[in-house]
Each structure stands twice: as structure tokens, then as C-alpha cells.
Predict the structure.
Amino acid sequence: MNTTAAGYALICFDGLNLLIDQHAIVCLNDMAMLQSGGHEEKAREAIEETACKVHSLTAHLIVADKIDTRCRYIVVLQADEHHFGITVDSVQSLPTQNPILHSLPACMNLSGSPIKAYVQIKENIAFCCDVGTLWCYINSSESRHEYEA
């Protein structure tokens, strides 16, 4: 992860605090605004406007079949030339320019995991997430899901 970035975003993704480079965020959609007055079609239109797939992860860290509408935001991220969306519970901008990154203990360091380090933010722990690796993880999970179907 590039620690010289201008800032980070702290996102809560399926109950997991992730710290990502703000430059990776293409756009942010507020689901509550989109679904106000029972207009689920507005949400679908906004998702289609992003021109990418939106993913919800389950507690088992597999890509869900459909968007979890209980989530508050859809964040569209860019990894290289790929755009993809994820549903998140909260998004917060952090002005932290050079957070102190701690390596994961060996027992938590899994190959292919988008989480490579952690940082303490006030009283919470956030896991530093590489967006490119997250894209690879989601893409490979999608491939496994299609293969199993």
C-alpha cells in the first residue's frame, strides 16, 4: 500500500474496518437517498450508471448473489483499469497521510488476501486494504462461484 497518499478512507465493509487510499474511490452512492420513498428502482439505476458490478460480501467473505440493501453506501473503486463496486455500512475520510502500519501476525497473513497490514485509529483497528488485491479476490471468488453453480 502506498503510504505517501494524500489521504485515506475508513470504510466499514460487512463489519470489517478497512483503510483504503482515497484516490481509489471513483464515486459514492448513498443507498438511503436512493431508496427513499420506496424507490428501489432509483438504486438499481444508480448501480447501472456506475457501469460496473456491485458486490456485497457475506460474513463468510464470499461474493453475494445480490446487493445487500441493508448496507448504507455503494462505493465504486478503481483497481488499475477495472471499476467495481462494494456495499459498505459507513465511509469516513481520514486526513492521515502517514499512518503507522503494522504487519499482520504470520498466522493471519493469508496468501491472496487484500489485507496486508493494520493500523490503530483512536480505539479501533483498521485493516489496510490494497484495492487491486481486493479486485483480484472478488474476481476469483466470482469465478469460483460460477464454477460451482
In short: Confidence is low (pLDDT under 50) at residues 1-5.
